[in-house]
Write a structure and sequence with these properties.
With 325 residues, this protein is mainly alpha-helical. The chain contains 10 helices and 2 strands, in the order βααβαααααααα.
Length: 325
Amino acid sequence: MIPGLSTRRRFSDLSEQEILALAISSEEDDARIYRSYGERLRGEFPASAAIFDGMAAEEDQHRQRLIDLHRTRFGEVIPLIRREHVAGHYARKPIWLSANLPLATIRGEAAAMEQEAQHFYTRAAGSTQDAATRKLLGDLAAAEAGHERKAGELTDKHLTDDARTEEDFTARRQFILTWVQPGLAGLMDGSVSTLAPIFATAFATQDTWTTFLVGTAASVGAGISMGFTEAAHDDGVLSGRGSPWKRGLASGVMTTLGGMGHALPYLIPDFWTATIIAMVVVFVELWAIAWIQNRFMETPFLRAALQVVVGGALVFAAGALIGGG
């Protein structure tokens, strides 16, 4: 094999038997993907799982009709040819990625799968000069369009307004538990807990570089600690809070960002300029925390603002007094 030379075949070079075999393997792959979506969603989103079960059954029926057609025209032996063997053929994402996809994304992926398949066969049918091949590709395009219509019928059957509302609520709740809640805890910890060491160092030394180093160390250390604590203390199985590593990542990153926000201004050499900017950043951070609490945790904004502002002010005052003393 010559380095850099693709071994994938062009679609125009495939025989009618190979095109039919490609359609069969594609139907098998899509049915497998739909079933994996159904298993992924069955516990939390049973209505959506039923939709994907039905779509997988439709793919099985089309695959069987294609196999019957192949048996009639070409015999029992189906050539082994898959999407990855054909240049320009639409690709499917690995099934294991579905474990990390939210509900809305999975629904969108399924719709895109049917549209991509239909468009591919339509374009292929339009590019061939052979009448029999053109008819075959046109039939495949029509089959894929039928899949898309069937998906709509299954959605109407299984995903009623009440079911959709309930599943959307569950998806939002899962997003909040896995990402927002640990991220908010991290942001609060990073923004508030680092106030005292950063401003104590600032007022004690009035050295911006030293203050920046202390702030960076405090922020990164707190981020690592919060991240590992969140990931280790709850595996999410019983609590339903989702992957511990996702929660740990959200908590660790937001903790670090919360502290670095008011440490970065001390890269400015002038002490009072850096300190004033850092105070403004602290105000923005605390206001952002209050907004997130109100937006996602449904905490009244004034109460959330009062909590974080009073808490932040007390920690800031402690740091300033200790450093100034």
